[in-house]
């Protein structure tokens, strides 16, 4: 897909809060995300300021991302795309990934529209100069991968996947697993995310 994280200078994310959210153990998730990105050399996160669907207190007074007005969320993301000017945009598939998280489903909708709108100057003219990403990839899981993922997602949880023949590109992340383990091991989110799957 391009170059490894060392070539990335920024990351746009819909997850995270307008105010710091702390876990029961006192971990600041926004600070954890920033530290993980620093370790990976991916710059600072760009937060859109919506609350997590499952943790509304993550951004008091703000709508959950899955409830955010579509036009407002698209405008915010178009602004970031036009500023960052990525060649490739990656988002969740229409199912929202394996767990079907409502924020991930909304992320798909918003990102698909924003990636298209970013290149059209007549849309959101106040959001910066138009920029059209060259490609939009949907992160998904083929049906054939689900059995191997059962240890992670649990036997009874729904696993949203697509027919193998619909997968048109794969990325071998093996060379970066060691580097990625470092932020994951430092993250209290790891157990929490697995609990949500």
From TrEMBL:
This is N-acetyl-1-D-myo-inositol-2-amino-2-deoxy-alpha-D-glucopyranoside deacetylase. SUPFAM superfamilies: LmbE-like. Coiled coil: none annotated. The keyword Zinc applies. Keywords: Zinc. The keyword Zinc applies. GO terms for biological process: glycoside metabolic process. It comes from the Bacteria.
């Amino acid at each position: 897909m391009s170059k490894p994280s060392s070539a990335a200078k920024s990351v746009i994310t819909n997850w995270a809060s307008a105010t710091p959210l702390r876990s029961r153990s006192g971990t600041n998730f926004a600070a954890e995300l920033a530290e993980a990105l620093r370790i990976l050399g991916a710059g600072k996160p760009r937060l859109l300021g919506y609350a997590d669907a499952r943790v509304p207190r993550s951004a008091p007074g703000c709508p959950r991302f899955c409830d955010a007005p579509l036009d407002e969320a698209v405008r915010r993301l178009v602004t970031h795309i036009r500023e960052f000017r990525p060649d490739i945009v990656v988002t969740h598939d229409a199912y929202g990934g394996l767990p079907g998280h409502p924020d991930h489903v909304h992320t798909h909708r918003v990102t698909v529209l924003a990636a298209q709108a970013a290149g059209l100057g007549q849309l959101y003219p106040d959001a910066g100069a138009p920029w059209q990403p060259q490609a939009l990839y949907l992160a998904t899981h083929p049906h054939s991968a689900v059995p191997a993922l059962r240890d992670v997602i649990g036997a009874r949880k729904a696993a949203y996947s697509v027919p193998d023949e619909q997968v048109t590109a794969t990325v071998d992340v093996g060379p970066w697993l060691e580097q990625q383990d470092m932020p994951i091991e430092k993250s209290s989110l790891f157990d929490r995310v697995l609990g949500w799957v």
